[in-house]
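User: I'm preparing a small set of examples for a lab meeting where we compare how different chains pack in three dimensions. I only have the primary sequence for this one, and I'd like the structure in token form so I can line it up with the others. Please keep the answer compact; I'll paste it straight into my notes.
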Amino acid sequence: MHVHLVFVTKFRHKVFTDRHLTRTEQIMRDVCHDFEAELVEFNGENNHVHLLVNYPPKVAVARLVNSLKGVSSRRLRQEFPDLVRHYYRANKLWSGSYFAGSVAGAPLSIVRQYIEQQNHPG
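Assistant: Understood. Below is the structure token output for the 122-residue chain.
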């Protein structure tokens, strides 16, 4: 099963540079691996990220999302002290909400192309 996920930063603050996004992708790949899922595509901008994840039916999307957001928030805070000023109330980097869309009906190539076209900040 495939899901397109979008996570936005708290208050949509522009916090990410290319190095943050590169590390975020690796962290999220590791989390997906722990869930026996595959991060098929990743991209983002300074205030949000897009993921295309292939996950097994036994995985609840909400659990996967909670781990992706929680682990990435914690590790980014540890590894990039410059991001700490963007962690508001309760040390949260991400907004509490997220977008999750099933892409079973859409060709994966179209979703992948959309995600690839999301620009990294310069």
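A couple of notes for your slides: The beta strands are 2-9, 38-45, 48-54, 94-102. The helical segments are 18-34, 61-79, 108-116.

User: Perfect, thanks.
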